[in-house]
Specification:
Belongs to the ROK (NagC/XylR) family. The radius of gyration is 24 Å and the shape is globular. By secondary structure, it is of the alpha/beta class. The strands form four sheets. It has a five-stranded mixed beta sheet with strand order 5-4-3-6-9, with helices on both faces. Helix 1 packs across helix 3 and helix 13 crosses helix 14. The structure holds zinc ion.
Length: 404
């Protein structure tokens, strides 16, 4: 056999193995016979693959009474709670760390200030914090990967940062650098895209293959899931919904253009509008209060005119942008994440109306707009990146490789 043929045989083995693991993950408990039927693999191959997965502790057998009576049947199910990962969110001047097991349960968290520094010092500090956290929370546990999620743009496939809004990391092969330093596979990605995937695997869009998550916080971003995968371009980020042009005479955006959606509906923009109107002498229960999104949403729900006007206008503009996304992607679910969800009763019907009036009838019929589940778990996206690497085979192979 030539080298090329050997590589091909290995590749076929990998592909078959991950196909079997995916079936057990999505359909389990499932019998070997059923796996063979659904995967079109020979029963002997299924037996061989499941034996290896059992040896690695990735799946386990469940014995139960067969529906036909008589002999007891054996089904297979995945074991997720014995495998751990660390997810790090490299936010805006802060670092959040969480240890999860693969079922999604968190076992330890840490939040640290993480100021902007020179690239080398920054990378060394990131490595040190991760290593300390792993030592404190991960010892004695089977740690299989680390994920780093961040605002900005990444090339997830190459493991490279393209742009981070707070740190000088452009062009840094972060996954490779940290992977070497920590001796673990490292996956990176944009935080909102990764959250959309987490909602698909574990949360509010679990029952649909196509969904859109729109997140309104410091900026406005979206994650589009099509056929159960993050919609992307050659591994690079897409869906920068926050920079859809809305107003030719609008405010200057961080991206350099004017009138982008996020200059109108991001948290800071709404608070700026409120403070500007209060300074003009508009009457509101917010006068004299410390302005926050929570206070603004509460005032809107209490029918304060100024707060209500600001929140309604933001919902209309978000709805306009979302109608464009619905026309382009025809999702089964639209998820909203962010402080604006506090005023859900005002915001959701307005977004809904905008989508109904501005997208194709066949695309918006029965399209629910729902609250994202993981509003408060900022590191959840990292869990999804690791789960994806496991389901798609890359991490599965690393776990199954014999240890040197
Ligand atoms: Zn912009």
């Amino acid at each position: 056999m030539t080298r090329g043929q050997i590589a091909n045989v290995d590749l076929v083995k990998q592909v078959n193995c991950s196909a079997v693991y995916r079936l057990i993950d999505s359909r389990g408990p499932i019998s070997r016979v059923r796996i063979a039927e659904l995967s079109h693999l020979a029963p002997a191959s299924v037996t061989k693959i499941t034996r290896t997965l059992l040896e690695q502790g990735l799946i386990r057998e469940l014995e139960h009474q067969a529906s036909t009576g008589g002999r007891r049947a054996i089904s297979l199910t995945t074991v997720t709670q014995d495998f751990y990962l660390v997810s790090a969110k490299l936010g805006r001047e802060e670092l959040l760390l969480t240890l999860y097991d693969l079922s999604g349960k968190a076992h330890g968290r840490q939040r640290l200030p993480f100021p902007r520094r020179e690239q080398d010092i920054l990378l060394a500090a990131l490595h040190r914090h991760l290593a300390d956290f792993i030592q404190r929370h991960g010892s004695g546990r089977r740690l299989v990967a680390v994920a780093v999620i961040m605002p900005g743009l990444t090339d997830a496939q190459a493991g490279r940062v393209i742009h981070h809004p707070s740190y000088p990391l452009a062009g840094v092969p972060l996954a490779h650098a940290l992977g070497q330093a920590l001796s673990l596979p490292v996956f990176i990605g944009n935080d909102i895209r990764a959250q959309a995937l987490a909602e698909h695997y574990y949360g509010a869009s679990k029952d649909s293959l196509d969904s859109v998550l729109v997140s309104v916080h410091h900026g406005v971003g979206a994650g589009i899931i099509t056929e159960g995968r993050i919609f992307k371009s050659q591994g690079r980020d897409v869906a920068e919904i926050g920079h859809i042009h809305m107003d030719p005479l609008g405010d200057r955006c961080d991206c350099g253009n004017v009138g982008c959606l996020e200059t109108m509906v991001a948290d800071a923009a709404l608070l700026r509008q409120a403070s500007h109107m209060l300074a003009q002498g508009y009457r509101s229960c917010l006068a004299g209060q410390t302005l926050s999104m929570q206070a603004l949403c509460r005032a809107a729900l209490a029918e304060d005119r100024l707060a209500l006007t600001i929140v309604r206008r933001a919902a209309e503009r978000l709805g306009q942008a979302l109608a464009i996304v619905v026309n382009l992607f025809n999702p089964q679910r639209v998820l909203l994440s962010g402080a604006l969800c506090e005023a859900e009763d005002i915001v959701f019907p307005i977004i809904n109306q905008a989508i109904i009036h501005q997208s194709l009838p066949g695309f918006h019929q029965g399209l629910p707009i729902i609250r994202a589940r993981f509003q408060d778990d900022q590191t959840i996206g990292g869990l999804a990146l690791v789960k994806r690497a496991l389901l798609e085979g890359e991490l599965l192979q690393r776990i199954m490789e014999p240890k040197p």
